[in-house]
Amino acid sequence: MAMLLDFPHRLTVGALSGAVAGVEPSSPFLACAPFAIEAERLSGADYRDVSLALRRGELIGLTGAEGSGYLNVARVLAGMTSPHSGVVRLPASDGHAVTLPGGNRNAAMALGVRCVPQDGDTGEQVPAALSCGERLTLALARALAADPKVLILIEPAAGVDLRTQDMISAMAEHARDAGCAVVLASSELDGLRGCDRLFVMSRGRIAAEFGPFWGDREVLASIEGDDCHER
Question: What are the alphabetically sorted keywords of the record (predicted)?
Fold first, then answer.
């Protein structure tokens, strides 16, 4: 699918970190070069001790049963909410890291993190006549036009038709191919097949991590807590 989006020049985290309230330098970022975002030991109401790192130019999936914590982990990665404990870091150009402020969406956006929530509501005005799928597609197009370093999609397949689902998947893969780190949090397994890695959460923890060639049976077993693939 041809993408009719004009990407502006990329902003650097280092140039922005000093101007964002609440963002302070952290310790040296381990393996800074290949990683776009790192979560360390996140714990909250329905998740605990969740750690993961996402590379630039990588598309990962987060999935699980209702209440497993995967949606709230995605919201923390997007800067929408704060964990009870743990930290999310992004690499800075000076070899250190900046901490992503929780519950501060504007600060997250200034650091190059964009989130498209399930309802497509990104705080921007959209025509009232648009359908759910049209709102979501427009929100994603606007997010991509900002040339984000990290893109978080939360339940993008919910309530939209197959054509829109395919379009959203293609746009997410296009962002990945352009060097963006993309997190796709979804309960719809079909929409996760293009992911480079798939994290399955069960009972608030990451129960399994799969590569790009996973099968429904093993993923469903991990979601249900009947199996565990050690990371």
Answer: ATP-binding, Nucleotide-binding, Repeat, Sugar transport, Transport
